[in-house]
Input
Amino acid sequence: MKIYGIKTCDTVRKALKYLDNKGIEYEFVDMKKHPIDCDTIDRWLSSGADINTLFNKRGTKYRLLKLKELNLNEEDMREWLCKENLLIKRPVLEMDDGKVLVGFKEEVYNKEL
Output
């Protein structure tokens, strides 16, 4: 499985610690060093990730870009995710079976892993 995020994100660190404590093997993909392309985002969306969950409306980048004022639809959100990876809610856990978990909630990880 792969987990996508940035090392400075507290939520990503919690997810990595969880996986380490459970002895679950993963590959970490640093989104700052390896930008996420549209094909990957489309794969996540087609695997069941919800665009409204994947698109982080609570982050600094969203506020800096003043995106709330644009009343974005789902296609607009997808386009923004493709060009500005820091709008992606982190972490994104892509399991070997293709299932995708967005964000970190221990109870969800307990259930799904």
Residues 2-112 form a domain with the Glutaredoxin fold (CATH 3.40.30.10). The beta strands are 2-5, 27-30, 92-94, 100-102. Helices lie at 10-22, 38-46, 51-54, 60-64, 74-83, 106-112.
